[in-house]
Design brief:
Distance between the termini: 32 Å
Strand order of the largest sheet: 3-2-1-4-5-10-11
Radius of gyration: 23 Å
Number of strands: 13
Number of domains: 2
Structural class: alpha/beta
CATH class of the largest domain: Alpha Beta
Strand content: 15-25%
Number of helices: 13
Shape: elongated
Oligomer: single chain
Largest sheet: 7 strands, mixed
Order of helices and strands: EHEHEHHEHEHEHEHEHHEHHEEHEE
CATH topology of the largest domain: Rossmann fold
Length: 410
């Protein structure tokens, strides 16, 4: 039999490690002949654009470089499969590609939307008696997939957020004038990544002094009161805020709106951090700056967590074991056995429990005041950021693996 693996959704530091996990584990089995990679996620299967991974991962050097390379070696996509009862052609195209290459197992590395793809394909295969299994391999820096203790990619992103926040603390603390620094961190629906900044407490830091997550209502009035309260004891106030918190436009006023509108005509903000920066400037008047970490927090492999990378590779390999047992329509998951010492086991759950669902940051790990997180959050995150990769450099710059094939552009 032959198999195919694809990568989807937003890039991370660990998604290529999961690809390696599938590839390296699959090469150990005599019953697996060719291991294909689908270019640009599910789109590669729709358009019959596959590569033989044995032809691009040829040496141990290739393996090491791919392991330390962020983003997706095979390219990615954000393609949502239609309802098969309404549009069957795309499914027929996918099966046609798989049949042409004698593929009997499909592995999809991604987040919520990718698990939706796995679920729909698995249902289509079963309803039509097609002997192909579909397995989901989790990936997202947002850490918002249900049923799994954590997701590959989160640990490295959390390590970057904590390290960068610590450097911002050092930068902000050198001046004698009062200041407020607002760090905007990814997290559209959940606050896992923003909460991870609290791991700095393990090294004796008191900042971030304030942490705001989407899981709790946000009030600009209370935010200003919180900042003023922290200013009584700290000259340089550090605030970590999730990009997904909702601001009350009635509290902010028209001047803080970007002027742009969405498809429904609703006005939206240019950025949470920038809006709060303007608010502090107007209402408090001290020195203030906002910093948006943006895409750097998901692809900074030079600060990746060794544990995150190794676990990503392990869970990819476990997916191959599951597929060879005939398991389909499942996503691989981590179950945390213990924190001291840290230990996890890998299992799998029905992908229907994950697709289109969200795992929110526990509200019991948010302080009663709603402006910080508890020590439980630190204990949860700290094991996931442990260890440093032995990064290879060339001319003083980390080396990356780049697929020689030119990926198609739309």
């Amino acid at each position: 039999m032959n198999i195919v693996v694809a990568q989807s959704g937003g890039p991370t530091c660990a998604i290529n490690a999961s690809l390696l996990g599938v590839f390296r584990h699959a090469t150990k089995y005599d019953e697996i002949e060719t291991i294909y990679g689908s270019v640009n996620g599910i789109e590669g299967l729709i358009s019959n654009n596959l590569v033989n991974l044995s032809e691009i991962i040829c040496t141990d050097d290739d393996v090491e470089l791919i392991r330390q390379t962020p983003s997706t070696v095979l390219g990615s996509c954000r393609y949502k499969l239609p309802d098969p009862t309404k549009d069957i052609k795309v499914y027929e195209d996918i099966v046609s590609t798989m049949r042409a290459h004698d593929i009997h197992a499909f592995f999809y590395i991604g987040g919520n939307d990718s698990m939706d793809t796995v679920m729909k394909l698995d249902r289509y295969f079963k309803l039509n008696g097609i002997d192909i299994v579909a397995i989901g391999i989790p990936k997202t820096i947002d850490n918002d997939l249900p049923e799994t203790d954590h997701t590959p990619g989160f640990g490295s992103a959390a390590k970057y957020v904590a390290t960068t926040t610590q450097e911002i603390i050092r930068d902000s603390s050198v001046y004698s004038v009062p200041s407020v620094t607002i760090i905007e961190i990814m997290g559209r629906d959940t606050g896992w990544l923003t909460a991870s900044s609290a791991v700095l407490r393990a090294n004796g830091e008191t900042a971030p002094h304030l942490i705001y997550l989407p899981e709790k209502p946000f009030s600009t009035k209370k935010f200003l009161d919180d900042v003023r309260e922290v200013q009584k004891t700290h000259r340089a106030v550090i605030v970590a805020v999730s990009e997904g918190i909702e601001l009350d436009m009635a509290e902010l006023g028209e001047e803080f709106q970007s002027g742009k509108t969405d498809n429904f005509g609703h006005k939206y903000l240019a950025g949470i951090g920038k809006a709060l920066e303007k608010l502090v400037t107007k209402e408090i008047g001290c020195k203030v700056r906002s910093i948006e970490l943006n895409v750097m927090q998901r692809c900074s492999s030079h600060l990746s967590s060794k544990r995150d990378i190794s676990e990503a590779e392990r869970i990819g390999g476990s997916a191959v074991k599951a597929a060879l047992k005939g398991i389909s329509g499942e996503m691989m998951v981590f179950y945390r056995v213990a924190n001291h010492p840290y230990n996890v086991r890998i299992d799998h759950v029905s992908v229907s429990l994950v697709a289109n669902h969200v795992k929110y940051f526990p509200t019991e790990w948010i302080t009663e005041s709603g402006n910080n997180v508890t020590d439980e959050a630190v204990e949860y995150c700290l094991p996931l950021i442990q260890g440093e990769q032995n990064i290879r450099y060339k001319n003083g710059i980390p080396q990356h693996y780049v697929l020689q094939q030119e990926l198609p552009h739309k």
